[in-house]
Write a structure and sequence with these properties.
Four copies of one chain form a homotetramer. Chain A is built from 13 helices and nine strands. Chain A has 287 residues and is α/β, with parallel strands linked by helices. Chain A folds into two domains: 162 residues, Rossmann fold (3-Layer(aba) Sandwich); 119 residues, N-(1-d-carboxylethyl)-l-norvaline Dehydrogenase, domain 2, CATH 1.10.1040. In chain A, strand 8, helix 7 and strand 9 form a beta-alpha-beta unit. In chain A, helix 11 runs antiparallel to helix 12. Chain A is globular.
Chain lengths: 287, 287, 287, 287
């Protein structure tokens, strides 16, 4: 079976690397060439374009930054979708909005391609160690075909529902991350103003039942003032934007996420987009 | 040693009950008489007023609903503080704003009384089972005198700092509870609109690292649509208000908590104030 | 010169009617047929589809509800744009987001069509009485060609700038309308809770320098509890959504409009979408 | 008739000056001495303390910055209220929250003093030119006694209702000012990002029916980047805080004002508190 992996960013490069480590036949493509070179050294074939990367593949994985990029690479006239072989499988691991996933699925069906949305939970270290969690939206039978590959990149596969539901669930996870990090930050900063020590607050709060457990690792970033990116703030801003878009499509009010979105907007505007999203703390502290 | 316990609501009645179970000499007072009758049956002495309840006490505990009530009972001219015996200890377990605790401490000092703020984390079941966590603001030596009593009502005593710091820390905990419950609710409701099942969402989300662990128990309330009060929504609204007040005093912006406050305002206005604060879900669902 | 008018809603039907009154040769099309019948009675030609309505036209006006509808009617493959005659002019009066206007302009240029964005300020009575204000984004020479028609539908034409700038300015106007109506409503409702009479507040506030003058007419709607639609609440919600989208594209924080958006979301969800947007008062009062 | 004027800030000094110009017998007091010197030069008597300023007065006016200051000067034990002569009138022109006005009125009644809340609309130039608008909460007969003095400091006296209603109405006016300035600022800034010129936006928007007329003068401040204080940003922040407090007391949700409050909080934190509140534009532009 031949695999193609499109999109070799922080996450994609490590996911493709894990497929290679497990002996799969993997062709890769990325817009900027340097990650391709690294994967070539690990045994990957490389291609000059997405269109040239996909024609032989039985399964094409994509891990791209925004729905706009997925659209451009796959869905535009003459895009990669039109170069895939009949009945091949396209697994989109990108974090996109559910209505986009549905649109991609329709385009795929029209092109004779089987589509699955399988966004992931986890950041750089989980990608590195094949400990990602996949949220899958697909028919069960399709998931079964793809599962062997997912098992090499992650350690948990949640079958959320039919097409689009993987994207839906991922969106919920990300808006909770974004908001929880912001309320944790606002609490620590208020605490400091109240005269409590930052070290104490960062140490104690994440271990209470009132704080999301992921804040433990983020508190460490705050403590060391080192926001080496695991999940970039600018993509979190994008995800909050996509959630606002989805909430609009569904006529569902979403107060807190919409306000959090503006806080991330400001941090991004201040040039913190490429830091880890935990840098929302840094933004709120310095503003 | 003689103890007096003022305020026998959901929490106070169980806290006083635990002191009685451990054989302490406890006098109680509550504005409405029925909880006094129950504690009398457990061995408590009762008093006709707060002022009559305190004169013999070595340690007076108070567990009242708002700073206004604490002020009225203790701090007004001729209030309970002026009837306490010299050098007695007043432990205020009420959830109040830090600047109020400082004011109470000053009034106590002037009256020759030693003051400690010791608000608690935990709701009805923790109060029942003596599993509360105390956040203490006081000199260490004062805490040591009071610790034997706290140990009968809770299983953890965190010495946060000097006077007022217990109240400060408690405020942070409560605004995180309020906001986390609201973002969890908004996520579940958006998920339902996306076509995911409520049962699935309530089951899965609280177990992810993105959700505060306390939401597990609250998800059960949502599932059964039974919001039997553990911590009343109207008091959560009060705490968000006190946080806004404190943020103003300290000139610290606090976006998300201020918006969450308005959501709780609406739920309270809709008549949900006496339900558990998890009923913010119900409000957001039905509005 | 032959004119085609696409989109005969509250606004479009009256605008087309004013062109007819001034003796122009007008062909009309609307998705639902009944408004076409009314305009036929006023002298319009009708067409069976947008595609059949445009081929003869020198100038095509469109007044459609959302960018999605404009896209579907004009921009999809084989859409109306491809049936327009070479060098014809397309004047889009719809309220859309600026980046959509730019995309429409590009598609038009590619098809040999000259494009102008000319959204309007004003509601039903202004449309009726040819008292609309046009915000035009176009080359000056193009505006000069179109001005004679605009002058029959409105009494003021503001040349805002090049293509897309009409849409940009219109967006600012609408988010100010939406927010001003919401803050006026919240002020009146708080005033009532303070014990001031609603009649007094509705009478006095709109005449103060602190209130946008348009609130005078809206206060009348509130007073009579009659929200007969002039500008539908659901379209205001759409415009706030488009503003949020634009703010995201431009990385510009926009706190208040984003929160106002959620208030309109709720009102729309409650079934008030087809009332005038002043019904945000009614929603806030009843919630 | 003898008048005392307490509080000689931007507004109070000009109001007292207008009473002097009209030949009244005025004693003044201010915490910092320099404004007293200026008024002495205009004919005022000065006092060494508020308590020494009031005993002879038939009418005492106060124009102080916050309810806390009014409380400290008048209401504390041994404060100015207790030194006023029996049946004298206390006209509080300070901007305070309605529940504070009611508390002041009760204290006054207990002390045998007649109380009136009469906050003003207008800033420095209106104070200078005796063009203030008074919002009066009082019995009609009391207003009639005081009206001759008000007429020398303002050109309009609105009798809003009984005691406390002047303060109520003033609160509504101020939160509308605060929010309108913020939404105007956000609109101009978004417009600039869209490529419209700041000069154009500042020129056009305030003249539209969608903008509160007071923004004309504020646009001039923005244009010249000169925020010479007329109404200080820090007091606007205070008023938004008092509105939040009042909304809490009345259980009335107030979304937009609460979010605006946080924007002003940030601007104040950035050191802009002593500029005119129009500097919220500057803050939003620079953040």
């Amino acid at each position: 079976m031949k695999i193609t992996f499109i999109g070799l960013g922080i996450m994609g490069s490590r996911m493709a690397g894990n497929l290679l480590k497990n002996g799969f036949d993997v062709t890769v493509w990325n817009r900027s060439p340097s990650p391709m070179e690294e994967l070539k050294a690990q045994g990957a074939k490389t291609a000059a374009s997405a269109n040239e990367a996909v024609p032989q593949a039985d399964v094409v994985f994509s891990m791209l930054s925004t729905p706009e990029v997925v659209e451009q690479v796959f869905l535009t006239e003459g895009g990669a979708l039109s170069h895939m072989k009949d009945n091949a499988i396209w697994v989109d691991c990108s974090t996109v909005n559910p209505s986009f996933s549905l649109r991609a699925a329709q385009a795929a069906a029209k092109a004779g391609i089987r589509f699955m949305d399988a966004p992931v939970a986890g950041t750089k270290p989980q990608a590195e160690n094949a400990e990602l969690v996949f949220f899958v939206g697909a028919e069960k039978s399709l998931l079964e075909e793809v599962q062997p590959y997912l098992n090499r990149m992650g350690n948990k596969v949640l079958h959320i529902g039919e097409t689009g539901k993987g994207a839906s669930f991922k969106m919920l996870v990300n808006i909770m991350l974004a908001q929880s990090m912001a309320i944790f930050s606002e609490a620590v900063l208020l605490g400091e103003k109240m005269g409590l020590s930052k070290a104490f607050l960062l140490n104690v709060i994440p271990n209470l039942a009132v704080a999301a457990p992921f804040t433990k690792a983020k508190a460490e970033m705050v403590r060391s003032d080192d926001y080496e990116v695991q999940f970039p703030l600018e993509l979190m801003y994008k995800d909050l934007h996509l959630a606002a878009l989805t909430a609009y499509e569904l006529k569902q009010p979403l107060y807190l996420a919409n306000v959090a979105k503006e806080l991330y907007a400001e941090a991004d505007k201040k040039g913190m987009g490429r830091l880890d999203f935990a840098a929302i703390f840094k933004y709120l502290e310095e503003r």
